[in-house]
Amino acid sequence: MALKRRNTDNLSVLLDRARHYCSLTEQCEDAVRQKLVTWGATPTESDQVTATLYNEGYIDDIRYAKAYCESKILHQHWGRQKVLYQLRLKHLPRRAVDAGMAAVSDDDYRATLATVAEKKRQELCSRIDDPLLLRKKLMAFLASRGFTVDEIKQVITNNNEEL
């Protein structure tokens, strides 16, 4: 009898901690499960807590994916490829990832890419005189940010940059 009560108390404590964790910032199921493991939850307790959080609206995959995409693309200036890769690591369903990627308009995305490209180009121009090396370094930087080669070439062409 005491063991059953202890398990119920532990589940209640884990649920309260998880609710607080999810109320601070938007979280996905994967992050909550990892946090539950660090708090010492068993797999059964983890399943129960995440099911309750879904039912109560603390966890929502689509809402999380939208917030994540907007944050990473618009504020941290990542490209869609890098964001997509990171979302896949979080084991989100495909429909949530698609909804998140659609949350950022193409115009906002292109504006972000153009801003990042121009800022980096100006930084590189102050150090590099060779136009081919400049173009190579700019493309490598933008590719590391998660932008595709086609997107990079398009922004360079659209801005009439002599690279």
Question: Can you describe what's shown?
Answer:
This protein is mainly alpha-helical and 163 residues long. It folds into three domains: 2-59, Arc Repressor Mutant, subunit A (Orthogonal Bundle); 62-102; 106-158. The protein starts with a helix and ends in a 5-residue tail after the last helix. The chain has helices at residues 2-24, 29-38, 43-56, 61-75, 80-89, 94-102, 106-125, 131-144, 149-158. Helix 4 (61-75) packs across helix 6 and helix 7 packs across helix 8. The longest helix is centred in the first third of the chain and has 23 residues, at 2-24.
Summarize this structure briefly.
With 163 residues, this protein is mostly helical. Helix content is 77%, strand content 0%.
Which helices and strands occur, and which strands form pairs?
Elements: H1 2-24, H2 29-38, H3 43-56, H4 61-75, H5 80-89, H6 94-102, H7 106-125, H8 131-144, H9 149-158
Helix pairs in contact: 1-3, 2-3, 4-6, 7-8, 7-9
Features:
single chain, disordered N terminus, elongated, 163 residues, Arc Repressor Mutant, subunit A, 0% strand, 9 helices
Highest-level CATH class of the largest domain: Mainly Alpha
Structural class: mainly alpha
Radius of gyration: 22 Å
What's the N-to-C terminus distance? 75 Å
How many helices in DSSP terms?
9
Poorly predicted runs: 1-6
